[in-house]
Amino acid sequence: MLLKLSLTGIKGRLRDYIVLFSGLVMASGIFYMFEALATNETFLKSNSMISSVVLIFHLGTVLLSIITFVYILYANSFLMTMRQKDYAMFMMLGAKGRKIAQLIFIETFVVGVGATVVGTVLGIGLSSVVQQLLVQQLAIKITHFTAVNSSAALLTLVFFTIIFLLAALVNAMTIVKKPILTLLRASETPLPANRKRVTLVFEVLAGIVFLGIGYFMMAQVMKFAFLALIVALITIILGTYFVFHSILIFVLDVLKRRDGIALKGLNNFTLSQLSFRIQDYTRILSMVAMLFALALGAITVGLGFHNEITKMTEATSTYDLVLNNGQNVSQKDLKKIHLASDNSYQQKEDNDTVYYDRTQFDQAPLLVKEFTGSRQTKKVHYTGEQLANNLTASDKLRSLELPEQSAKKHQFLSREEFAALPSKTTELRLIMVADFAKDKSALKDLAEENFRLNPTLNKEEGSMTQKVLMYELYNALFSGFEFMGFFLGIAFLTMLASCLMFKILSGAKSDIQRYSMLEKIGTRRQLLLKSIRKEIGVLFLVPGLLGVIHVLFGLQMFKTLLSEPYNSIWLPFLIFFVLYFVYYLLTVWIYTGIVMKREA
What is the pTM assigned to this prediction? Predict the structure, then answer.
């Protein structure tokens, strides 16, 4: 009977539960995906390059777990608020508190476990997608990977079951302890809105000061290290709270006093609605702003790491391909790449010296990239004469040679002197292609062939001269951050938007009478719809804008990891705001359906 009553209650609030359900499905799906990658031991041992990002996925799991726990408690409390009258009616009809507690427990637990099961199935699909992304991004073969991971599924089920058990117990105990009259009139009891002007001004100033300190400390993270992070976290949270608890109230008060704004259309009603409930929204708006900053920051930094792969590769690699004993490389293999330049430098050597034809360097100077500071590089060309007289320049050439050559002296001879030497002639070929991304696969094959033709060349040390191998190294290092940032950003967005939606919808019941009265006295329906869009728009826009400001200042902390943290920032912002706007439209649609009767 209780199960049937619980399912009936869920059916009655189906739209609200669908929003909660979708957020939980996304959270559990991403949780499973992280664990499926991080707990597959056979997969990790078989793919040493992937194992370097395991810690990143475990870190993502911890962050996701914390945010998910907060989200579930918050979302469930909103649903309980919306069902308080139903539970009060059951109590008035003679239902015992113990039975009501069981009813609440079953509702919470059924939704939670159902979402976890569906989320795990979704996670299996996500794991398959991520596997393909890893293969494409890292350009390596992945073996022993399976999207179905029993350890990850068990961890996901246990974690979410424990959270839902706690949430169900908290919900049951909270509702049962409240008097029936309080439950019946909960949505009709406004919070006190009277605020002393002195207190308001003090909080406005405190909010500005706290945010200023937090932004300053984020910019000085290299100087103050861990202290800067702690101070920034505390002050930004306090500053965010005061923004909504005082600054927003102050701005709304100023707008209401401007007749040109307040008396236009239903603006006065909209501003009054916002002023009336803003104190009750302080905590949720603060949380949404912080989650917004975390989500947008995660996606922005993740894409920033993606851009860093190419930049770091270009900064540390001058030539696209280095061929030692290049005369032995098959011309058929070289035809697979699109050459932009192919410079061959002839070598002869004895026990102590490597000899070069100086005129070849005069005709095609050796190209070297040198760091100028702040991760910037410049291209420097060295002629044969410069290489002969400059030990630093000669060392640049030595880094491209075979290990047995690097310990020998250099001599740069005229063409006639070089030709007169009796030693065997070999070639050092330095190649650049027209499009590295297009020829990446062929370049890797040629680099591998270079190692096979030169057994003394250590692959780990020799990879420093091969651009394609340096690319794979940086790709393996940064791709984990990229994927974690993207998936965490989506998870955080789903949760923050759902939380804000729940909060707005939880007050919809008490707004029905207000909109009904306005409609009865002749207010046009279009004006009412416009007022709803404006009111909800402000509640979505303000935490979003503050979150963007947090991100813009927060990117200062990543200057040590990202050479250009603000490069192409518009792309993650655009992706994020499109998704955020979809949640705004969904909230407007559901809220309108509650407070206004549908037109025939």
Answer: 0.71
